[in-house]
Design goal:
Oligomer: single chain
Helix content: 25-40%
Radius of gyration: 18 Å
Largest sheet: 3 strands, antiparallel
Order of helices and strands: EEEEEEHHHH
Number of strands: 6
Strand order of the largest sheet: 2-1-6
Structural class: alpha+beta
Number of helices: 4
Shape: elongated
Mean pLDDT: 89
Strand content: 35-45%
Number of domains: 2
Distance between the termini: 29 Å
């Protein structure tokens, strides 16, 4: 995915100072006050969280882009899907399996369970 970072103060990158940077990565990891961008397990960028003003994920904003990973993203839930979700939850099906089964992201599954009062954060 493409990630656009805007910094609160200029950062060194490839021998020059930049206020914005585009990074291609498949994962963002936050820890120890640092944001690390990883691509295929290798760190491709690292910056202190305090120096970041904005993290923008331009490719993930459109519904069509989300549906590449989650085919049912933003589609309405049916009563049949609700019943199936609750049945699978009762069987102890893990969240990762539910995301694949329903073609929706983790937050969509958790949000639906919350709405169905089957999940309390």
């Amino acid at each position: 995915m493409e990630i656009h970072l805007t910094f609160s103060k200029p950062q060194e990158h490839d021998g020059r100072r930049v206020c914005e940077l585009d990074v291609s990565a498949d994962r963002l990891v936050i820890g120890d006050g640092t944001l690390r961008a990883l691509d295929k397990g290798s760190v491709v960028g690292e910056v202190a969280l305090a120096d970041i003003a904005v993290i923008d994920l331009p490719g993930r904003r459109s519904v069509s882009a989300l549906r590449e990973r989650h085919p049912n993203a933003y589609r309405p839930w049916t009563s049949e899907e609700d019943a199936r979700l609750l049945a699978l939850l009762e069987k102890g099906e893990p969240l990762e399996s539910l995301t694949r089964h329903f073609g929706r992201g983790k937050n969509a599954i958790l949000g639906r369970l919350y709405k169905l009062e089957a999940f309390k954060p």
